[in-house]
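Q: Predict the bound structure with flavin-adenine dinucleotide.
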Amino acid sequence: MPYFNFSYKNGFVLLNNTDITRFIPCYFFKNEHNDRSHALFQIATTTFAALYSFIMLPEFDNTEIAFKYRSDKELKRARFLFSSMGSPVLTSIGMKMTSLAISWNLPVKGLIRHTLFDQFCGGETMDEAAKTAAVIGKYGVDTILDYGVEGKESEEDFDTAVPEFIKAIEYAAKNKNIPFISIKITGFAHFALLEKIHAETLLTEEENAAWKRVFLRIDRICKAAADNKIMVLVDAEESWIQKPVDDLADAMMDRYNKTRAVVYNTFQMYRHDRLVFLKESYEFARSKGFILGAKLVRGAYMEKERNRAAEKGYPSPIQPNKEATDKDYNDAVLFCLQHLDDLALFVGTHNEESNLLAAVYMHEHHIPAGTDRVHFSQLYGMSDNISFNLAHAGYNVAKYLPYGPVKDVLPYLMRRAQENTSVAGQTGRELMLISREIARRKV
Ligand SMILES: Cc1cc2nc3c(=O)[nH]c(=O)nc-3n(C[C@H](O)[C@H](O)[C@H](O)COP(=O)(O)OP(=O)(O)OC[C@H]3O[C@@H](n4cnc5c(N)ncnc54)[C@H](O)[C@@H]3O)c2cc1C
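A: Predicted complex:
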């Protein structure tokens, strides 16, 4: 199936991509009214289409575009990091030593800051993050401000987080490259409370009051986002707290998504019930007259989910295998793209095939690459080959950019280190692309 429309003009075959129009000299077929040359033209373009679609797949391999924003020094650091993380033993030892060093107050901040932190985070403050946002913004890649502080558990912490996020929204509103912020409901609510609501356990009066406070915190953030024309991504978390997260996201979308998508809920397609849930959420949004913001991910807590299900003796919520997750993810992408009238899609993945599927579908169905109904996203420091090449072709792309004090974003950094050992293929791919770019620059 060709990925591009072809036409013939002035001795050129025109490939009509939505944003890039490429001219391929085709001097053999000058006379378009001559039947024989027209037939030859048809054969040539069909062959070309087949070849081009083949060539198009590794288009994400353009390392010059992918890493233009990185200096030679940064690339060498990335190569060192990804090759170290590729060894599960080294990573595991490194993670344990880092946690110990932090708990013993040893001076390791500088070391973390100049390695993992600089690779995966935007900075310690919003100003630093904005500088990083401006760098990637030069290449057409937007930013999702992600206040990466985790592990706070008191009502006071939850309250103080709200103005921090509102500050981020107001800051984002002044920066044209920052259209999104992301939030985790566990940053504003006790995990145990969410667990109780999920399990439909009767709440005490105090718990009911606490839940109302959570609602108000999230509402203040979403209202500020709506007022400032910024979008809010509500991250998905563990399945045993997800029901109240979904309900809150629905309530916020009902309030703020009447004319445009301000709030997005997250759908983890590694769960076997989520494709159905996505379709139900869409029907619910239509019945209430709001636009469904659908952020699609595969899901980050697979081992934890499976282990808990086995321990507690209930059926695992996770798909039986990777293929099933991939199938539901891609089906969800297509479902969303087919319903863009009442839905805004956020494709959150490092998977090349899923990104390409969405881009190709958009092209074939004449959905403009720059439509505000579709965004692509990858994490900062990972899969630049996808982000920057998609942006180069005119698609909306935004990087998740965590920021915050080094010790507070440590859990996030540990997850990235862990992820880059377990996703062997991904680490190998990053390393190969980075090494190739370093070699290319030497030539
Ligand atoms: C922008 C962005 C935002 C994100 N936000 C969230 C979020 O809010 N909540 C969240 O949970 N995660 C989130 N993630 C992480 C995401 O869920 C994935 O863990 C990560 O992106 C890897 O999946 P992939 O689609 O990028 O790539 P791939 O490498 O193609 O897929 C890896 C993923 O496939 C699934 N998988 C792997 N093996 C199996 C198996 N044997 N059986 C079933 N499934 C399997 C797992 O989900 C695994 O993470 C986000 C990721 C991005 C890029």
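A: DSSP finds 17 helices and eleven strands in the chain.
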